[in-house]
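#struct-pred

JT: dropping the chains for the assembly here, can someone run the whole complex?
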Amino acid sequence: MFRYLMQRLLTGFGALFTVATLTFVLMHAVPGDPLRQEKNVPESVRQNLVVKYGLDRPLLEQYGRYMSGMFLHGDFGISFKQENITVNQIIRDHFWVSALLGMLALSFAIIVGPSLGTLAALFRNRTPDNLAMMVAVAGISIPSFVLAYFLQFLLAEKLKILPSGGWDGPETMILPSLSLGMIVMASMARLMRSSMLEVIQQDYVRTARAKGLSLMQIIVLHQIRNAILPVVVYIGPLFAAILTGSFVIENIFGIPGLGQFFVNSVQELDYTVIMGLTVFFAGFAIVVILGVDLVYGLIDPRIRLAKK
Amino acid sequence: MKTSKRLFLSAFAFVSLVSASTAAFGLDAKTKTVTINMTDEPRNMDPQKAQDTVAFFVLSHAMEGLTRLDPKSDAIPAQAEKWEQLSPTKYRFQLRGDAKWSDGKQVTAQDFVFAWRHGIDPNTASLYAFMLFNIKNGEKINKGELPVDQLGVKALSDKVLEVETERPTAYLLRLLSFGTFFPGREDVFKATGAKYAAEAETLPSNGPWKLTEWKHNASMKLVKSETYWNAKNIQINVIDMPYLIRDSNTEFNMFKDGKFDLVQTIEKELLPDAQANKIKIQRYNVGTVWYLQFNATRKITGNKWIRKAISVALDRKEFASKITGIPGTKPIYGIIPDYMPGVKKTYGEEYPVTFKDADLETAKKYLAQGMKELGVKELPKLDILINDNQAHKRDAEYLQAYLKKTLGLNIGIDVQTFKVRLQKTTNKEYDIVKSGWGPDYLDAMTFADLHTSWNTNNDTGWKNAEYDKLIRQAMDSVDPKVRMDAMNAAEKILVEESPIASLIQAYRVYVTNPELQGVLRRPLSPDPDFYFARISEKVANK
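RK: done, full complex below.
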């Protein structure tokens, strides 16, 4: 187990290193000068700024500085746009908001998705199945921002039962979480449904029936536990979908999360923020996927045995 | 407890929780609180380095300069209670005895000296240092040719400040109301270094309000300062910015919900919604002039007749009213906008610059002349460089179609991100660029000197000795008539040579809670200005 963990961490670190390098290369390949503003300054003043941010050094040296700062000291540098704020501070101040939003969206998806899928599987080809799958298809096809605007229009503007934006108080968290989690919820519902249907075919279910177990016991003890495996694996990539979806949702509902920085920093060519956030998100994703794999190992004893 | 009772109580609790948290905002007459959108995170709140509208808005409420602007945008005494002009370039300002910082310390002349030196220092690398070029030796110091202590500002005593300008400056008093000229606290600067004005606690405050809360990229709050000399006349106690909403649709929804009392800009697409809800739409001249800028260093656009052909062919009235679609947008034919002060009235009233719109006959003549001079039978494709923004795309597409229809020109559209657009423009890698210029101070000079040969923001490649001479004349005089005449003559050269084809003077529409009155909107900060604002009687007495 320990060896497996170490192996995963090592490959994870390698992936992170690659992401950081690629980001650096892409960032500098994009044309435009991060220090150029609408008003021009005297050349001597501009030179001072260039030196301050180390942009006059050869690219390789800049790369070295970034990487050593990031990986050796955990220091992501100072934002180009907001000179007094460090990227570390930005992450510290805003990560929790995005994390909460993500958690709420994921919770919504994890609770409602598999439940809907189970319902659909149990009442296969009957009304609950058709309704559930209609919702699922809609959820997958509609982009999160379209859903966000629609929910905002319907529930906030017209019916006035929920607020249009902000992030203070539980009622402001409902619409953003729903908009963000819908795609994941829908994917999980469909996946759960097909997984459940597959499990029903299995021999051990028939055996359990023959042994006299009630339908309820079968569903809980066997079906759900087995059917949920593919869904758990899917959480990894779905988490990535929530991450990227959050940028748009945060913008629409005015949520002070990390997503706004991502989009903004690319437009502003804020090198340090771009690098810092990309590496941070990549690292976070790697950790989450590792966690999911470990959980999968816990749920499914076959995996554990295979490792031995 | 019975289940039904328990249910009822929990429902009641939920409802009161929800309603309690939603009723806390909006125009609150008891606490005299105004709630608005934070709109964006300020890049830098050091008054000498501030460069964006949010920073200027907050700073112009949390701090104050020697003078401030009244509702007519004339300069009135602020931190200085009176002044005398000793010579065309020397002024002496007497600071108020009761001018205090929010921590109780007196505002001194040394505070201004420190701040202005900090602003002009090349190591500070301030984007707005050019404002201090009006002060003697400012430009030389910023270029590193002189030490910082040579700046023409001296503290004669704790409350007397002597200012020497580089040349006679007619608009100096209005200029001094602006953020770059605010005082600073050297002790705070020495103690906090890079964190000077980076947090609410380290922002020195001598204005009507104090910044009490600043959660970066999330919220800000200004609370009335009891140490302010004119506190008794400030009617708004709290300016609260509890959210940073970037989506204009969401912002407008929140205004309709009563969460915001003012929306600074209403997008064109939201106007029908506002009208449907019977919300009063207000407008003001935002100050910006938009124009097509030609690259005078390239072969085709370097030819005066080609440029003039395009300029006179344009239908500015149609562009202003139909294409832009913002109520109030005005066409412009020169470069100096109407609202600038003239001699006795506004510049627009006293020195109108205009010529016939959509003069296709003359345009075709100019085009033929230009092509003859260049020795070409057909013109190659010319690109209009723009930002990747909806409004610019729409404008460029209109111009492309219009110029094809009227002059048979082959126009392309070069869409770039903002940073790349800036770079291409500065490096003169464009044919035509859609550009705009906003005023830095309230005098025609801020537009007039844009196309001088010495202005670093002139990236047309065009220069004209006569133009330069007239602008110098206007700079060296304080007589309003001499100055306006000179700048108007220069403007006529601009029209004749057409290094730019001006388009419109931009207006902005906005909405306010009708119970909030006296909020001023201006082309310059403070904008919006809450200094003279108040909550209407009928709400206050409820």
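JT: nice. Chain A has twelve helices and no strands. The first helix of chain A runs from residue 2 to 29.
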